[in-house]
Amino acid sequence: MPNISQILSHAEASCRQRGTNLTEKRKRVLTGLLQSKKALSAYDLIDYLRVEFDEAPPPTSVYRILDFLSEENLVHKLKLANKYVACSHISCDHAHEVPQFLICDDCGSVAEIGVKKNVINTLQNSVEQAGYLLKSPQLELHCVCQDCAERAA
Amino acid sequence: MPNISQILSHAEASCRQRGTNLTEKRKRVLTGLLQSKKALSAYDLIDYLRVEFDEAPPPTSVYRILDFLSEENLVHKLKLANKYVACSHISCDHAHEVPQFLICDDCGSVAEIGVKKNVINTLQNSVEQAGYLLKSPQLELHCVCQDCAERAA
DNA sequence: GAAATTATGATACGTTATATCATCCACAGT
DNA sequence: ACTGTGGATGATATAACGTATCATAATTTC
Fold first, then answer.
1. Torsion B43-B44-B46-B47 (CA) sign
2. Nearest CA in chain A to B77
């Protein structure tokens, strides 16, 4: 696993290639997500920026930055948890299947898994039979991680 | 499709059988969801109660009632949309597969579908391989309904 | 170096949800 | 009837998440 500064360089190059700009502020938000290794809310990130960088950006700015990072596929938005997480494939060069997220309801840890294509296809078929169009096959699943399951036991 | 008062009687009987009590207030919240035929937020329901029944319950009460109705499987909570919807099988007697929800991001309409058991199993296996436990295989999918898709076209 | 574009800040507010403590109500046992 | 008990609801305040609007700063481009 590459270290954070390598990931940042990679992300920066990727943005430049797409004609966008990974600014210092955007880098700091991304760094926060990479360091925490779990999903954070926008307000968690504001706290992080205050503590680590003595910044106090308004929510507006942080949400804008998170939107930007999502657009660049550096970060995923987890609607189910109202949180944001660094893409686990952030430093890969190849394209990926649509990510599926497992969110631990207890501790907030997030695992990103792939599922077989035919599962998604079956799902998509069911959706279309109901007269709907799937906007995004990105699933977010309520889970409990092993650590929390053991702690509870 | 049974009418609303039939559904209410059925729900009331179901609660009684489980040793719980479908009070008038709870009935009115359920009625609101049944009438609207779509997902409503807790605050939508407060508005509904004010308009239809000249009540002004605090959010606390409405959330409590929604929790109760969820426990009784009369209502489903859609975390993805922060809304609540009457269970479409509310008046059936038989057990059901775990519901899957299609949420129109434009108009908020919700379809409830079943998916084949093996799809869920496959998913569950992937989750377990990642060291997580699936708390609920209830999926909520971001969709666009046919009406909205046509309107946009 | 002025104009245009991009990025960020300030302020205020809207929406969703919960914490805490108080009150009401129905019903059981005496 | 009296009372205690548990279930149900209300009142109040506030937390957490998110957005609208307008202003300002920084960067690029000509």
1. positive
2. A80
CB proximity A102 to B under 8 Å: yes
Predicted confidence (pLDDT) per residue in A83-103, tens digit:
999 987 776 655 556 678 988
Q: What is the pTM of this model?
A: 0.87
Q: Is the CB of B60 under 7 A from strand C?
A: yes
pLDDT at B119: 84
Check CB contact of A106 with chain B, cutoff 8 Å.
Answer: no
Walk me through the domains of chain A, giving residue ranges and CATH numbers: 4-86 (1.10.10.10), 98-152 (3.30.1490.190)
Please give the protein residue whose CA is closest to the C1' of the nucleotide D20.
A60
Residue type, B75: V
* Burial call A2-22: b when 16+ CB within 10 Å, e when fewer: eeeeebbebbbebbeeeeeeb
Q: Which amino acid is at A9?
A: S
Distance (Å) of CA B62 to CA B20, B26, B44? 17, 9, 10
**Test mutation, B107, B121, B123, chain A, max A CBs within 10 A:** B123
Q: What is the pLDDT of residue B92?
A: 66
Q: Residue B92 CA to nucleotide D6 C1', Å? A: 31
Chain A environment of B111 (Cβ under 8 Å): 130-132
What residues of chain A lie within 8 A of the CB of B140, using their CB?
80, 140
For residue range A13-40, list pLDDT tens digits in order: 999 999 999 999 999 999 999 999 889 9
3-state secondary structure of A40: strand
For residue A140, list chain B residues with Cβ-Cβ distance below 8 A. Answer: 80, 140
CA-CA-CA-CA dihedral for B22, B23, B24, B26, to nearest 10: -60
Residue A143 bridge partners (DSSP): A104, B134
Q: Tell me the two tokens of residue A81.
A: 């948890």
